[in-house]
Amino acid sequence: MKSIAPSRSETPPGLVFRPMVWYGKKVIESVRLESRRHALFLDFDGTLADIAPRPDAVRLSSEVPQVLAALQHKLGGAVALVTGRPMNDVDALLAPLRLAAAYEHGAVLRTRDGEVLRTSAPDLHEALATARVLVQKYPALLLEEKSSSMALHYRQAPQLEKICLHALAPIVTGRPDLKLLHGKAVLEVKSSRVHKGTAIAAFMQQPPFRGRVPVFAGDDVTDEAGFLAVKQMGGVGIKVGDGPTAAKARLANPQALRQWLIDNARREHTS
Ligand SMILES: [Mg+2]
């Protein structure tokens, strides 16, 4: 894979890149967050938190809520989560911190003021019925029924990937209102009208995000829509982990991302 490190001329104002060697490639190690300039958007699983065998088995390092609170203060409140998880899940893991957040890949937004905005849920009856039959037949599968989407996890049985895909793909074909996302050991069926890019764009219309440069970190294919959105807004995507991406920067793993957050939270306020 070719290097994704940008030339200096591509560096947006206020962002400092330091190349490092990672897996033999030059990648961008640091994007320096400035207190009056940047807005920060973060995916959760595989980005803030290490991937776990099951979504409910995820454990978050104890320093994460503190670091996020410090960054929220530093960036004037312009910090939001952008996750595929439903709302209550993430709140419980970050308590007592409550950030602005997009849940279910942008189908549910909670603003900085706590207002919850939901897009109308698509008809998932057929997808859910199919997934329930699969789970009954293969107990190693895990079905998450969310308010506006559903996720079928096969992390405990990766050999079932094709069976799940072949069962769900035909349901989405011919349904322009639905989108099938193929993430890390998970298939999700959601509305095609929203994605992580629309969620970030919606936040960027509102204070305290409006007028800032968006920086978005994520690890999975579902984050690519977010990377494209921030690119269009003059911001920076940070891909966590390996794989092709539209993101401009890359960090090796969630641990590296957490360290980057800690470094930025500790840095003196600059404008
Ligand atoms: Mg993720």
Structural account:
By secondary structure, the protein is of the alpha/beta class. It folds into 2 domains: 19-119 and 194-266, Rossmann fold, CATH 3.40.50; 125-191, Alpha-Beta Plaits. Helix content is 28%, strand content 23%. It has 7 helices and 14 strands. The chain has helices at 63-74, 87-94, 125-137, 161-172, 196-204, 224-232, 254-266; strands spanning 19-22, 25-28, 38-42, 79-82, 100-103, 108-110, 116-118, 142-145, 150-153, 178-183, 186-191, 213-218, 236-240, 249-251. The protein has an 8-stranded mixed sheet with strand order 7-6-5-4-3-12-13-14, sandwiched between helices. The chain has a 4-stranded antiparallel sheet with strand order 8-9-11-10, covered by helices on one side. It has a two-stranded antiparallel sheet with strand order 1-2. The longest helix is centred in the middle third of the chain and has 13 residues, at 125-137. The radius of gyration is 18 Å and the shape is globular. The two termini are 36 Å apart. Residues 1-14 and 16-28 have low confidence and may be disordered. Bound molecules: magnesium ion. Residues 43, 45-47, 218-220 line the site of magnesium ion. Keywords: Hydrolase, Magnesium, Metal-binding. Its cofactor is Mg(2+). Removes the phosphate from trehalose 6-phosphate to produce free trehalose.
